Amino acid sequence: MTDDARERAILAAAVPPNVRDVCATLSAAGHQAVTVGGAVRDALLGRAPGDWDVATSARPEQVLALFRHTIPTGMQHGTVTIVTGRGVESHVEVTTFRGEGAYSDARRPDHVVFGVPLVEDLARRDLVVNAIAYDPAKDQLVDPFGGRADLAASVLRAVGDPVARFTEDGLRVMRAVRFAAKLEFTLDAATEAAIAPALPSLAKVSRERVSDELRKLLAAREPSRGLVVAARTGIVASILPELPLADAAAWAARVDRATAATRLASLFAPLARGRFDDVTVRHLDRDVAAQVAAIAKALKFSNAEADTAGVLVGVAHAARWDEWNPAETRRLLAELDGKLRPLAIELWAADRSQPSESGEPAIVAKARRVLDAREPLAIGDLAIGGKDLLDDVHVPPGRIVGQILSLLLARVLDEPALNTRDQLLAAAHQLVLELGS
């Protein structure tokens, strides 16, 4: 079997029945209809394809007339959604072959032209590996720019002139580094060199679109494959000018090691500060936490994502110091919300700036022991509560109740064995006398 026949057989088996039916209906009406883009690429790579998009020579109004259930998703851009069953998974997006005008906003074409041939439609796409089409009705592959060869070589090339492709739509440079990470491909030299001239176009792209690409990049098995290129070409400096990168390779490798829940924090980890001989290194750096949260929110990450990343980077410096004692470890963990403590440990574990015998920073093992032993870290973990102070110690209602509980927690953080009802009540009696005097 030839390579072409093998690839056609792969695609013939991969195209879902509802997508095949949509193409068949368009073809029977005299129109060309092909599957195109990421699903074709992924099927040829042996990956699970995502949404299958259809491109057609039929104009939008002709598509509407051929199908009973449709949604005019983006008629001005030639896109109609065909509803083939129940649920969004039955939707098939169909877009008319089109040429495009100038990109004044560096994101969307000022106008589109319908009625162009398939090859011209493919020529407007970003990367060659995304410009492969398959016609299910005719069992025909259309690959005018050599996308299948690039798949075999694990190379990413821009379609046509890379500077023109990237400059007209600034988001394409983000897509290029994201696909480098997702597919574990390398950018060819001319395509990478075209990124720097396109950075002014990237600056015009909405931060929502940029953060969406960042999320997808961070979800790759090895984000470093895209992050190192992004740093080398100026993308990182463009979208995260606040980030100090002394060693981009080490930074990106740390992101690789981070868990999915801590990758955003690991992206911002170079903002962590603190000296080993500075007592502040033993506490949550609230200034850094606020700075990171503000940067992440400006990039349109959600408030929850931004605040979590901020707090985690606010304690990231703890991994640089190996002389943690148990009490200091408990006090640091006590500054974190319960759900963030395991995430802080995960972020510390990804740090390799301070080598140790275990390969992980010293605080990792110490913090794990605290959590595994369920040692008290919050007022709610104390063996007594406010009612006990009112009933047994006869503390008057008011702020003093909270003060005493906070002081008791401070003692328990130093010595967890003190966390018994009798010992805490005795300590509370003593504190009442001290506060009263």
The span between the termini is 94 Å
Number of DSSP helical runs: 23
Give a count of the beta strands, DSSP E runs of length 2 or more. 11
Gyration radius from CA atoms, angstroms: 29 Å
Features:
50% helix, 23 helices, alpha+beta, seven-stranded mixed beta sheet, 437 residues
Question: What do you see in this structure?
Answer:
By secondary structure, this protein is an alpha+beta fold. The chain is built from 23 helices and eleven strands. It has helices spanning 3-14, 17-28, 38-45, 60-66, 118-123, 147-153, 162-168, 171-183, 189-193, 199-202, 207-218, 224-233, 235-239, 248-257, 263-268, 286-298, 303-314, 326-334, 341-349, 362-372, 386-392, 399-414, 421-436; strands spanning 33-36, 53-56, 70-74, 79-83, 91-96, 98-100, 112-114, 133-135, 140-142, 155-156, 186-187.
Secondary structure layout:
Elements: H1 3-14, H2 17-28, E1 33-36, H3 38-45, E2 53-56, H4 60-66, E3 70-74, E4 79-83, E5 91-96, E6 98-100, E7 112-114, H5 118-123, E8 133-135, E9 140-142, H6 147-153, E10 155-156, H7 162-168, H8 171-183, E11 186-187, H9 189-193, H10 199-202, H11 207-218, H12 224-233, H13 235-239, H14 248-257, H15 263-268, H16 286-298, H17 303-314, H18 326-334, H19 341-349, H20 362-372, H21 386-392, H22 399-414, H23 421-436
Parallel strand pairs: 2-5, 10-11
Antiparallel strand pairs: 1-2, 1-8, 3-4, 4-5, 6-7, 8-9
Helix pairs in contact: 8-11, 8-12, 12-14, 16-17, 18-20, 19-20, 22-23
